Amino acid sequence: MFVQPLEPVADSLPLSALVAALPLVTVLVLLGAVRMKAHLAGALGLAVAALVAWLVYGMPLGQTLSSAAQGALFGLFPIMWIVVNALWVYRMTVRTQHFDILRRSFGRLSDDPRIQALVIAFCFGALLEALAGFGAPVAISAVMLVALGFDPVRAAVVALVANTAPVAFGAMGTPVVTLAQVTGLPLDSVASVVGRQTPLLALVVPLVLIWLVDGRRGLRETWLPALVCGVAFAAAQFLAANYFSAQLADIAAALAGAAALMLVPSARRPADEAVRASVLKGVRSDDLDHDDPRPEIYRAYAPYALIVAVFSLAQIPPVKELLAKATQSFDWPFLDVADADGQPVGANIFTLPLVATGGTLVLVAGLLTAVVLGVRAKDALREWGATVHELRFAILTVVSVLALAYVMNLSGQAATIGYTVAAAGAGLAFLSPVLGWFGVAVTGSDTSANALFGALQVTAARESGLSAELLAAANSSGGVLGKMISPQNLTIACAAVGLAGKEGDLLRKVLPWSLGLLLVMCLIVVGQSTAVLGWMLP
Description:
Elements: E1 2-3, H1 13-20, H2 22-32, H3 38-56, H4 61-95, H5 98-109, H6 113-131, H7 136-147, H8 152-162, H9 170-183, H10 187-194, H11 198-243, H12 249-263, H13 265-268, H14 273-279, H15 294-314, H16 317-324, E2 328-331, E3 337-338, E4 349-352, H17 358-373, H18 377-390, H19 392-411, H20 413-421, H21 428-443, H22 446-464, H23 468-479, H24 487-497, H25 503-528
Parallel strand pairs: 1-3
Antiparallel strand pairs: 2-4
Helix pairs in contact: 1-20, 2-3, 3-4, 3-19, 4-9, 4-17, 4-18, 4-19, 5-15, 6-7, 6-8, 6-9, 6-11, 6-12, 7-8, 7-24, 8-11, 8-24, 8-25, 9-10, 9-22, 10-11, 10-23, 11-12, 15-17, 18-19, 19-22, 20-22, 21-22, 21-23, 21-25, 22-23, 23-25, 24-25
């Protein structure tokens, strides 16, 4: 049995922490300074982590490789299994042109550009985040806003800022699923705390979007619809994350936000021409005037309804028990690890949820979607293959980052860093979201940031006497605010609206909002770590 050492370098915790941080430093420097492709940076970081585990921590080479293999498998299944199937559903709606029908449907909900920004960037962007993630919501929302006549820069900024509140539950809950796995905390516990943090952002972000679109006048005239939208979004996200299904949190929030917004009478009133003239300075797409048959509009909404229906059915106790029977648990080969206290770690046993996993449920919904949209079996299979090809580099990135995370966690590197960070004491609650924010700003992914820093946060929390669930959740909740300034998202936004090379201009516009909202999240977490807001936690 390999027992994790905490101070392998000169019996010094600080020196050991410096060496243990080398894999993380490698990845962050390669991504941030060298601008290396993420999948290559992840692979090199994994190599450094394996060398540190073997040569410094004394982890047998076979166990080091075995821990990397377990992390890689988890990256493939269930993480990328969820993402591939979710994006496949979206690609089928594009292939059958039902996505265009959905886009036109949203455009007809209101002719007020301020309301359109809420519907498309905030609500529909959250729906896209739920299904695809990985930059798709920013690209698609920005393009849709430009088609409505928004200036490209304004469209890109609005899309970037809107892509915050839903990120922690994006791609069918992938970030929180990853966070639960790498920390060993129950998914329900982690999702519950995240669901009591990010909904607070949802109360603010719609108002920020209105300000970005139309300044003081926009807030004065449309604050009520924005507030109602934010409250409905926040309430649905909170309820789904805490009492139903973390995988459906964003879908429920997006639909609730859009529905509540349309119930506000002022949101449906024709916009003042002065407002439209001052906001819509781009070229409006002609296809927005095309009338779609009502049955086709229903079919355009069908994929999202099917996902909700399949996940809802899977939550019924008898069905849930039946699906769980297919779950396989077994001793992971060539792995026998104990923590610093001599207790076997949970990763020695690997659990494989073959059916009771979000990816398989999305696959079922995708098969039903193909039938409803009239996609032939051959074409559906071809789209699935094209989805895998499109995501090939994202798959490599996630696999390498999770393999790195598992090596660091199982060798004891993450524990060493965590014990060192715990010296921050009470200040750790304030710094915890900042670490997640930094991780997402560099990697562009809340999933990757959770894999890299999740275990570290938990170790630091336990050593400092803080709630492990709170700091783990704070990593993800703080991370969502780094999404808008990540080079990956900035590049995607610029490419989508024809502003290639203008990433620096966008960064200057969104950075103040990223930092301001991060400060709000830090104060929320600090409050939740004390009696001030501690009542909010489960």
